[in-house]
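Deviations from the work plan: none for this task. Representative record:
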Amino acid sequence: MKIGIDMMGGDFAPLEAVKGVKAYLKTSSASSLCLIGDKSMLEKLLLEHGIDPTTLFIQHAASVIGMHEHPTKALKEKTDSSIAVGFGLLAANKIDAFLSAGNTGAMLVGTHFSIKPLEGVIRPTISTIIPKVDGKTGILLDVGLNADCKPEQLNQSALMGTIYAQQILGIENPTTGLINVGEEEGKGNQLAQATYPLLKENSSIQFIGNIEGRDILQSKADVMVCDGFTGNIILKMAESIYDIAKQQQIQNAYFDRFNFEDYGGTPILGVAKPVLIGHGISGEKAFLNMLLLAKKMIEKDVMNTLQKALQA
Amino acid sequence: MKIGIDMMGGDFAPLEAVKGVKAYLKTSSASSLCLIGDKSMLEKLLLEHGIDPTTLFIQHAASVIGMHEHPTKALKEKTDSSIAVGFGLLAANKIDAFLSAGNTGAMLVGTHFSIKPLEGVIRPTISTIIPKVDGKTGILLDVGLNADCKPEQLNQSALMGTIYAQQILGIENPTTGLINVGEEEGKGNQLAQATYPLLKENSSIQFIGNIEGRDILQSKADVMVCDGFTGNIILKMAESIYDIAKQQQIQNAYFDRFNFEDYGGTPILGVAKPVLIGHGISGEKAFLNMLLLAKKMIEKDVMNTLQKALQA
């Protein structure tokens, strides 16, 4: 197993990435890593943090795609950037997963052009973990990759979310809810109305019906599906509530669980290999958790399970 | 001025409605009210609360539309219900505003069939107050009346929200933001992409561009527009955060401002007369604040200002 990590992406890279790698090495083997970035800079930083650089595989990448660069343009022009090099390694099967806290757009475009979608997937999707108030954990998707969705996409999201919840979140029989404005069948916008019967008929998921905005943080459904526009607003609003709680000096274990660092990054679901997108402000803990998530996804062979489910 | 109040609608009516009326009478005249409901029951309750029933105008209504009855069916069959009677009075100009904490659907259907839309309005809309973390107050619309919207509707929402923010919230030059998944023009789903240029060209509003989920609780824009599907999810998620904060025994002045009782009800904007819809679980404070809001809307002649703005 080899996990490729973009050491240069993110507001606090490469320092926090190095710290994350150091924390990862406490429980995992150095051979499972491929560090991508400025080799001499990384070697120096690793040494400073008590890691012998010769024990790690470092793939040199001379440049970095900035957080605000145009994704397609940057990827095309900066072929020696850590993200471009990472996708090159992933496409050539030299690494089994790739993660970065860098330019999100470049990660999406890179995935689109370098990694095949799983057979039968209409469009890949991205998700987020939603902490539930009773201590459980749910998954919400799509959170922004597809602003406009077709009912069939939401139906696939439900399936992919179900598999992910089983394999990664450890939920044996995940329930699925359709995010909507009312509980009854027939409620909602055209998309929700057309999606409901598809979910109802989908025997690969455990559909419990519509869930409302007030149910998102409650344990009504483990897998919550909606279009990427709605999901993105929900995700960013949830993140802002964490920030506000911190700012208001609220000490509360539940609100603390909204800290994205605990989850690391979000995988792109529906493509052949794990690609994990981290938050721009990722620190040591986020990098560590992204590495552990990538490891788990490879070990559980999640993408293969998804492929089988999609073809069932 | 005469405000019609459905005394029988809501989970805690008529008791809490009577308490709300009592609180209202401390600052406002009895002649500004028309109580609608079971006359003998109301007279008894008023007496018990130290109010002489003969000082108030009570319009008898023999039945009540239950919270879960089918709106159209109930309105048609229960012509002696407090909501049906209220709309009858409003349509006959015997009252100048009507408010209820009862069956929301019946309030919407009643409005649709009894009260004319303002000239030029594509579709009426409903809004919610959003408390901002810096102490300010914003308005979000639509929050559920129109699950699928056209760009022109969002443009009208921006105008109606601007007038409401000026007249009722006392914001002199309200800014408008388009709820979206990214800051840049061109981002978003088809609706948001098509709405942006309309808002940009609308000289009756002060458009500041896209706002994201993380900006909703921040003071980025006073008026926040989106389709009713997205708005409904945001509203109900915000309400659930208040409930969770209470449940987690969080003492915080900001989260306390999410208490819907402080705002009373939400008016339907875009119709000729003020119709206010209260929360089913309205208590004394919510009824009081609904009455005060209705009074303010009549005094400021908000509907007329809206009509002029729509025709400008």
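Chain A touches chain B through 40 residues (CB under 8 Å).
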